Amino acid sequence: MQRFYEPRGDTNAKVLTIHALDDGLVLPENETKYRQAFEAAGRADQLVQLSTTQGGHCGFIAELFAAIPALTAWIEHGEKPSTAALMSACPAPACSFTDAEPGPWGRKVAERAQKGVAIDSLVCSGLDGDCPSDASCDLAAGHCAAD
Predict the structure, then answer these.
(1) 1-4 own/partner pairs: CB under 8 Å, 24+ apart
(2) Do both 31 and 99 map to the same domain?
(3) Residue 134, domain extent
(4) Are residues 111 and 41 part of one domain?
(5) What pLDDT shows up at residue 128?
(6) What percent of the chain has pLDDT over 70?
């Protein structure tokens, strides 16, 4: 999976992610790329991304406990979670939800060619580093295209 996986956002499931902006192991900018995949698949309405100001890698347990009922309500009743609702359900200092978002993908991590992954399966939004150096972003398609 590590060698050939590229998120496509092509799912019928509702997806909720939580990422700490201070995560030094898995860069929060990965959330930007994940959102691009859902947008390119036409399924952006099935993704909710939440951020916390602290917790590093997997150190935001209170936020996870607050998010589970929100995800359940989305699945069972169509009540899409929001940062504001979760901040209200679990206010600081217990939880550290924030409206702040990670920066663009290409600013920290330039996309690279991946053995076994077709260039045109990589999603992009036109930012520097969105596509490998031998490709450019086809904005109409939302995918990289070989030069």
Answers:
(1) 3/114, 3/115, 3/116, 4/114, 4/116, 4/117
(2) yes
(3) 105-147
(4) no
(5) 82
(6) 92
